[in-house]
User: Fold these one by one.
Assistant:
Number 1:
Amino acid sequence: MRGRIVRGIAGFYYVQAGSRIYECKAKGIFRKDKKKPLPGDYVKIDILDEGTRTANISTILPRTNELIRPAVANVDQALVIMAAASPAPNLNLLDRFLVTMEKQKVHCCICFNKQDLVEEEEKVRLLESYRNTGYRVLFTSARQGDGLEELRQVLADKTTTVAGPSGVGKSSLINRLQTGISMETGEISVKIERGKHTTRHSELIYVSEGTYIVDTPGFSSIELYGMEKEELQEFFPEFVLWEPKCRFAGCAHIKEPDCGVKTALEQGEISRSRYENYCQLYEELKDRRKYRTLRQ
Ligand code: GDP
Ligand code: ZN
């Protein structure tokens, strides 16, 4: 039988097959497939006991991708949630998240929740910050139910990893989406219980057939692992368009004269907050390199 791992805890994997969830072990998998099962994996299972819903994972099917943070397989896109206010959006943290997803080649959508707490001007300011980036920006209110239809459309038929700092309303939004299901289909056979205590593990939440969200633990800071300062600019999609206009090959867009990116910034084609966050991350990567060399 074929199924999908929705979560893994302490050597047990919970595999959804149709409307059932089986508790599985993965005996012999590592020796055979040379890899550990991950949430999101499509697997073949052998039923041990239908009554107790226990099974063994016999094969991990090929992955389309594999993220490191969060550790999850077969993800189509990422959704990053910030609050439009309370807590005030931290665009530096948001840009860090976007950079790590670009590096992992995962397309991202941005959602500002709690839109009920801000005026139109603030929404325009947030939108402007991501103008020309190619990222879709949504505004929602889990409290008032605004923007949920658009959010559902973004999620439909995909597996989306959902992340954000705590307190932005991620749980409220997810609950809203799940309520939507119970109203539409009348019965949720595979609604996965969300524990009160937040886990350190990622888990897949079934939204509707073919639609899953990967709930990841809230974060308060993001380190840029394994990244060189020279490659950082590749992860700012709107910079790539202007780079050919730079006079110097390998321009870092910081102190160099005749820089296409800085010209775009002056013309308002690239937002100041994005540019400033780029510069800050660049400096951080530069310092880290220095630090590493000193220690060697
Ligand atoms: P999480 O930590 O990101 O999962 O955030 P929660 O879903 O627990 O929400 C944090 C707080 O924000 C709670 O007090 C929610 O009631 C509140 N909240 C969530 N969504 C909204 C919203 O759209 N508008 C407003 N005003 N408050 C919200
Ligand atoms: Zn440049």
Number 2:
Amino acid sequence: MKRVIARAPSNIAVIKYMGKLDSSLNLPSNPSLSLTLDRLCTVTEAAWSGPGEFSLRWQGASSLGEWQDLRPMEIEGGLALKKMQRHIARVASALRPGLVDLGAWEIRSGNRFPAGAGIASSASGFAALTLAVARAMDALPEGERGGALLSSLSRQGSGSSCRSFEGPWVAWEGERAFRVASPSLKLADLVLVVEDRPKTVGSSEAHARVLESERWPGRLERVAARYADLRRLLESDRLAIEWSRFSELCLEEAMDMHGLFHSSKPPFNYMTETTREVLAWLESEPSLPVAITLDAGPNIHLLVPNEEAGAVRRAVEQRFDWLSILQDLQGPGALAGARA
Ligand code: PMV
């Protein structure tokens, strides 16, 4: 069996993918925009037997090749295993059209997020799996169109994973995720880990429930305006000059998404007391150079100019000395490593 290892980073959205136009293909209701991370990633090993009867053996892994101290990826029971199996079949059939017997697969996977970090791994997990399958079959497609094909296949497994193939700034519109011109100011992401319990409402359910929110009408207009503003700001290299506008747009967008959660029918909420306490403190410290965003969870991401990351981290630690903080940098995406 041929064994290969692939790695893919997570990404953090500043314009959120929330709500689907088509849930079988994971086509989004609105465009989104994200920063690709670097060390917060998934590492996946795939071994393929070659054509033959289709089967999958899956295991979590705590080390793979040069990658040590991984957190064995957890998947929840039969449903998630089925999802993984469907994804392998989707990628294998697309990359080798006409191949009927998809063969025996062995997959091992681990995350470089420390245990209990409260970081969702579906973006990095599906991107790494897509790449690992392509490499195991010796079918890594070349060029820009090849990258677009992998990203689009990955999207069908997990929507947000389509933005992890390139970096640092990636836009996703409809069927296509693509790199946008990136500003010279480089960012770090400080993840303030407020809670590490599994979410009560998974992202698939959130995508469906927000459509019932009384705030859904108007959401597409609000998000389109912010998306256009942020793209202009990034692509004209005005991130440093317009930092406070950037920061304002990031927070507005995160609160808009959480507002949809809070007003869904029935409503749901990811924010904890601690989330609110930390947000209130950040608001009382306007001189900190941070842009705040939250995913569908209680943890707070602070996007910070690289050179300010140490000082911001110390300020947070001084106020909340019990909070665990993960620190990462913007990165070039999974394809950069896969083709190296
Ligand atoms: O890829 P999914 O279906 O897990 O969606 C997650 C969407 C958010 O993380 C909440 C926002 C985003 O754009 O990443």
